Amino acid sequence: MAKTKTEYRCTECGWTTAKWVGQCTSCQAWGSVEELAGVSKTKPANISATRAAKPITQIEVAGEGQSPTGVGEFDRVLGGGLVDGAVVLLSGEPGVGKSTLLLEVAARLAKGGKKVLYVSAEESASQVSLRARRTGAESDNLYLATETELGGVLGQFESLKPELLLVDSVQTVFSGDIDGVPGMPAQVREVASNLIRVAKESSTPLVMVGHVTKDGSIAGPRTLEHLVDVVCHFEGDRQTSLRFIRTLKNRFGPTDEVGCFEMTGDGIVEVPDPSALFVSENSKGFSGSCMTITIEGRRALRAEIQALVVRSSTPQPRRVTNGVESSRVAMLLAVLERRAGVSVSDKDVYVSTVGGMKITEPAADLAIALAIASAASDKPVPKEIAAFGEISLSGEIRGVTNPKLRESEATRLGHKRTLGSTSGDLKAVIRLALS
């Protein structure tokens, strides 16, 4: 007779403990630890010849690598396309365009001759069909089903046997074998596990849409991200039409790539060269503006940083940033005043990027400093200059990663001069740029 014991497991991350606790010590979630009664010690099973372990050199590889989806920017972040049996989780905030992107991917593959099954658990068939007509995503090979029960989704898959399965979304599908409403951690785990099992057994690529919580993390148990092969995050500012897709996890390719899209009235459009979106349309030079070349994944992008310096009317001058880190700007203001003689302690300083771009890498330090110095002296930085470099507390300009890629991108976009670590210290570079 098997010896049984009582264990407690966290429904969020799967952490187990011998006694009940109110807070999971692994993921810090409250009230997520539940009792698992009657856990038995599993005995070793008899392994058949077909299941016996084999040398890795004798394992047959299914498929021929990655198959492009037809959406170039999506293929970029996937590492070239979809792999047979791969499971992709696409997350993003509500209204950012996840379903529109998914429908575009489905339509491209369907028009290429592949049978695609699109399962919508959030919208009706007429709503999805209306969007498909508006965006030109109709095809006879694209099959649409509206199912909210796991059994119905699996039944549609077995009867149609598609070459690609898309589920929108995994949090709105429920299993009748599990207690709880759709979206609960146990439900999400059960639904995802069964869909992944079917995808792996049939070598069919699976793309699932995932909701996010208010803090930006993927809703449901943390184990969901461990079960899938690829985790992509779709992001963008609702005030602008620009959208980015980034890879957070990828078992088949790099995780530092980024794809760029633009939301239009006719659907989602790829932006293979987005550098023009992050600069102002004003052809005349004005003070408080400086161009930089930033690296997103393996792609070099041109960005414009603008600054405004005005006399403060309050005892505590304001520091407002948009698209750049406020702590980084505060440090640069101190370095500018102490090392370069740019007095801004009694002035309000506003720093922003153009086009809603977010820059986090320190390579943009020099461009931010030049924009602030230009605004403070009311002298414009020539449009022919592109600056990139990290600034230390001593005023030294340090080198950045991929300098050759940045310089070639600046040259391609018409910048005749680049300023960086080889141009001197901060004070000398400011004098050179504003002379």
What does this protein look like?
By secondary structure, the protein is α/β, with parallel strands linked by helices. The protein has three domains: about 5-40; about 65-270, P-loop containing nucleotide triphosphate hydrolases (Rossmann fold, 3-Layer(aba) Sandwich); about 275-435, 2-Layer Sandwich (Ribosomal Protein S5, domain 2), CATH 3.30.230. About 25% of the residues lie in helices and about 25% in strands. It has helices at about 70-80, 100-110, 125-135, 150-160, 185-200, 225, 325-340, 365-375, 405-410, 425-435; strands spanning about 5-10, 15, 35-40, 65, 80-85, 85-90, 115-120, 140-145, 165-170, 205-210, 230-235, 240-250, 260-265, 265-270, 290-295, 300-310, 320, 345-355, 385, 390, 395-400, 415-420. It has a nine-stranded mixed beta sheet, with helices on both faces. A hairpin with a 5-residue loop joins strand 20 and strand 21 (about 395-400). Helix 7 (about 325-340) packs across helix 8 and helix 8 packs across helix 10. The radius of gyration is 27 Å and the shape is elongated.
